[in-house]
Amino acid sequence: MKLYIKQKVFSWKDKFFVKDEAGQDKYYVEGEFFSFGKKLHVQDMGGQEVAYIEQQVMHLMPHYNVYIGGQLVAEIVQKFTWFKPTYLINGPEWTAQGSFWEHEYAVTDRDGNAVVDISKELMSWGDSYELDVAETKNELLALTVVLTIDCVKASQNN
Q1: Fewer CB within 10 A of the terminal residue: the chain, N end or C end?
Q2: pTM (two decimals)
Q3: Residue-level pLDDT, tens digit, the chain, 158 residues
Q4: What is the phi/psi pair of residue 141, to 5°?
């Protein structure tokens, strides 16, 4: 199953829709403008919050918590490495590796099975991503992982 993210270019805070393979809006993502640390709210098209991502600011390396249904389901931590960044997704025990600067990376489970493959369109107005999610049950959590990694990259670029 594929999801598509196209961020709005001229926005004071993060706001964008996530579309399904048919091009229909599936989720709406909005960040908080004034907050201590990055915060993103993921809503279904009925306006109900289905996931919440919150940066934990008192850590040496980027550290985010993901809540689904009000429950903490994952901690996403950038691991310190000299050459290529690696993200650990504690909870489901996933790992994100690849070329984050070239916007081509994958999230795998502890057995090395693909959870989601992420690629970014380089010639587009604003950030556009394609998420190829292996199993429907991992759709929302995989989306939050990609959003979190994008937050980390954006903050490191600023």
Answers
A1: C
A2: 0.87
A3: 999 987 655 444 678 899 999 999 999 999 887 767 789 999 999 999 999 999 998 767 889 999 999 999 999 998 877 677 789 999 999 999 888 766 789 999 999 999 999 997 765 556 678 999 999 999 999 999 999 988 887 766 65
A4: -65, -40
